[in-house]
Amino acid sequence: MRAEEEKLHLKVIQVDEIQLKKGLSELVRGSVEETLNALLDAEADKLCQTSKYERNPDRVDTRAGSCSRSFETKV
Predict the structure, then answer these.
(1) Is 32 a member of any domain?
(2) Radius of gyration of the chain (CA)
(3) How many domains does the chain have?
(4) What is the C-alpha to C-alpha distance for residues 23 and 20, in angstroms, rounded to an integer?
């Protein structure tokens, strides 16, 4: 009877190693992506001396790399 109970317990808990590895790969990839994006944003904040979407009158550049232009239109 003991052997049958052990077989039953083995059937209850099953680990799909392929799914486990796939899930771990996605988790690691997502974690690395978040970390790298945070580092790049922090570096951009330091270079621009302001945060993303923040206005600062002392700042002469923008994070988008645009500059002031005067437009000429024809009427």
Answers:
(1) yes
(2) 28
(3) 1
(4) 5
